Amino acid sequence: MTLILTILTLFVLISVLFVLVLVRFDRGEKEPRSALWSAFGMGVLAVALAIGLEVYFVHEMTTGTLYNLRQVFVSSLKVAIIEELAKCLPLAIFIYRKKYFNEHTDGVMYFAIAGLAFGLVENILYTLQFGAEVGVARLILTPLFHAATTGLIGSALIKVKLDRTSPFRFLAMLLAVILLHALYDFGVLSGLPIFIAGSVLLTFGLGVALFMTMYAARRADERVEYFKRKLLRSRAAKLGHRRRLERQAATE
User: Fold this and answer.
1) Span between the terminal Cα atoms of the chain, in Å
2) Strand, helix or coil for residue 102
3) CB 142 within 8 A of CB 203
4) Which of 44, 63, 148, 187 is the S-S candidate for 206 at Cβ 3.0 to 4.6 Å?
């Protein structure tokens, strides 16, 4: 029991640390705390939504009746579709038109926090249900898995809003993330060492991709801020020149 409590504590500490990293990484306008908590809360609620849909649509997984790799992959794909849509669609509908959702880093941060909340609850439930061994495995493999997949989707959504990119690019990212999620689950559930190794590499790769995306988003925001300052200085210079001409004309 002590080991399980330790694992659960580590899950919480990792989540808190990651949220702090995300918030500090955002160098733009300070985000409303209520908005950050809303994203976290929607990630928690997404777990209940996903469980309900999986019980209905993926009954072969919840009842332990998977007999071959093809069935494992189909079930993994169903789970990936349900979980990714449950995490991102309600949040996207809620936040897209909000005034504070106005920087490239916001797309990654809010969605990563929602994914982090989803993963935190899922990891706690799995550890309590299946024991410390599963908890340790998920502590190594999945503490940031859902944060990464949802954060990548959020990065594509904010580009639609700010950069006017095609919505099809957002859809392409969503489909790519669903496929990666399905491949990860398939590798773990297959029980085959080579596929399990692939899942391990995939989850670490997604973590790296998340931080690279966050860094790229911050650079994009810095470029926007640079051009804004440059435009303001240009306007101020033009206004000053116009006033000097007006004063010169008045004295002649």
Assistant:
1) 91
2) coil
3) yes
4) 148
* Contact criterion met (CB below 8 Å) for 159 and 144: no
Are the CB atoms for 103 and 28 separated by under 8 Å? yes
197 C-beta neighbours (distance < 10 Å), count: 11
What does the alpha-carbon distance between residue 180 and residue 168 come to, in Å, rounded to a whole number? 18
Q: Is 164 helix (H, G, I), strand (E, B) or coil?
A: coil
Q: Are 217 and 110 in contact (CB under 8 A)?
A: no
Token output for 48: 């209940």
Which tens digits make up the pLDDT trace of 175-226?
Answer: 999 999 999 999 998 888 999 999 999 999 999 999 999 999 999 988 877 5
In tens, the pLDDT along 5-51 reads 999 999 999 999 999 999 888 877 889 999 999 999 999 999 999 99
Q: Which helix (H) or strand (E) holds 1?
A: none
Q: Cα–Cα distance between 235 and 105 in angstroms, integer?
A: 28
Give the number of domains in the chain: 1
Listed residue (31, 36, 1) closest to 15, CA to CA? 36
| Structure-token pair, residue 22 | 């995300």
* 48 alpha carbon, distance to own chain's centre: 18
* Rounded Cα–Cα distance for residues 203 and 216 (Å): 20
- Range of the structural domain that residue 57 is part of: 2-24+32-251
pTM attached to this predicted model:
0.88
Longest dimension (CA), the chain: 95
Q: Tally the residues of the chain.
A: 252
36: left (phi over 0), alpha (psi -120 to 50) or beta: alpha
